[in-house]
Specification:
Elements: H1 9-18, E1 28-31, E2 39-44, E3 50-55, H2 68-78, E4 88-92, E5 102-106, H3 116-120, H4 124-142, H5 146-149, H6 160-175, H7 181-192, E6 201-203, E7 212-214, E8 221-224, E9 231-233, H8 236-245, H9 268-279, H10 286-310, H11 323-339
Antiparallel strand pairs: 1-2, 2-3, 3-5, 4-5, 6-9, 7-8
Helix pairs in contact: 4-9, 6-7, 6-10, 7-10, 7-11, 8-10, 10-11
């Protein structure tokens, strides 16, 4: 046994064995990924088989956050839709097995560009291919027929921006470790500047370079992962989030995801053009969604900081975000909002 934090390895091993996926005992569990929210483990068996296991973070959680059962529903619904996702194999909430819901998925072989070190091992051509594949993957998510997939009741159909501002303002009050007046100022600015919503689509909610698995040969996106923030809303929100996470070499504040600053990766402008070409959507409101995404990222980062302070076992390999990083993201959000003409 590998003594993975957060798992009763014997009980989980027995659950997986009973699922009939062909696992050969003994199983080993290794935490993987740089995700700072739901915990992800690689499951390896004695015969060379591999799977992926997900569970919520350890310790006290905010209501409605880190819902593994909901993520399982979404991934199940997306099977066969054209959206590249892992195959879901099982879900358990049995207290005899686990203290929190567990989801087992297929292992998708590929490259996860979750650090600048990984990106440096790729050629500039491969980096560009991956970058330009991302708007196509995002377009496939936004093209899902909600009724056909059984996801039309996943979330409210009320205006998405208002829901996001209300939800994340509430999350800020519950998770902040200190006062940052600019977070509240941004919330007020965004509230005054909400664009009209003309569509209701499936929205991933956290689409960025670390949340896709890419093919080893040509760099295309072969799986989109980490669906815990998925909801129904304005598709441009996902584009804004992609831009918010997508650092460029000339940025004063590259943020925690610096891989895209390397040669070969497309610019934010190129990503925007690729998505708009793929979907035919109007980018007029994109500045609002870019600023809102940065505001939201700062709140998420503050929540990660709080969880790691309360229970260090939640800390990912890359460590927890610093207060300076969070303050810098808030400042960047305000700058984007002003340059977008929000008043």
């Amino acid at each position: 046994m590998s003594n993975a934090v957060g798992l009763d390895e014997e009980a989980v091993s027995n659950w997986i064995a009973d699922m009939g996926v062909g696992a050969v005992a003994p199983l080993e569990f290794t935490r993987i990924g740089n995700g700072q929210s739901n915990l992800t483990y690689l499951v390896s068996d004695a015969g060379g088989g591999q799977w992926v296991l997900r569970r919520p973070p350890l310790g006290h959680l905010l209501a409605s956050a880190h819902d593994i059962a909901r993520e399982y529903r979404i991934l199940s619904a997306l099977q066969g839709t054209g959206v590249p996702v892992p195959k879901v194999l099982g879900l358990t909430e049995d207290p005899a097995i686990t203290d929190a819901p567990l989801m087992l998925m297929s292992f998708v072989d590929g490259v996860v560009i979750d650090s600048i070190g990984v990106a440096k091992n790729l050629t500039p051509e491969r980096r560009r291919a991956t970058g330009l594949s991302m708007p196509k993957a995002l377009a496939s998510i936004h093209a899902v027929d909600l009724e056909l997939a059984g996801l039309d009741d996943l979330a409210s159909h009320s205006p998405y921006a208002e829901r996001q501002l209300r939800r994340w303002s509430g999350q800020w009050e519950k998770s902040k470790t200190r006062d940052i007046p600019a977070v509240d100022e941004l919330a007020a600015l965004l509230t005054r500047s909400i664009p009209a919503q003309t569509e209701l689509n499936l929205v991933h909610g956290d689409f960025h370079l670390s949340n896709v698995i890419t093919a080893r040969d040509d760099g295309r996106v072969v799986a989109v992962v980490d669906w815990e923030l998925c909801t129904l809303g304005d598709p441009l929100a996902d584009v804004g989030a992609l831009l918010a996470y997508w650092a460029q070499a000339e940025d004063e504040v590259p943020g925690p995801f610096a891989a895209s600053t390397l040669e070969g990766f497309p610019t934010r402008e190129e990503l925007t053009k690729a998505y708009m070409h793929e979907t035919g959507r109007d980018p007029a409101a994109l500045g609002f969604w870019h600023a809102l995404a940065l505001w939201k990222i700062s709140i998420i980062a503050e929540g990660v900081l709080r969880r790691t302070m309360e229970d260090p076992r939640n800390t990912a390999a890359v460590g927890a975000p610093s207060t300076k990083l969070i303050d810098d993201i808030v400042a960047q959000a305000m700058d984007i909002a002003r340059r977008a003409g929000l008043r």
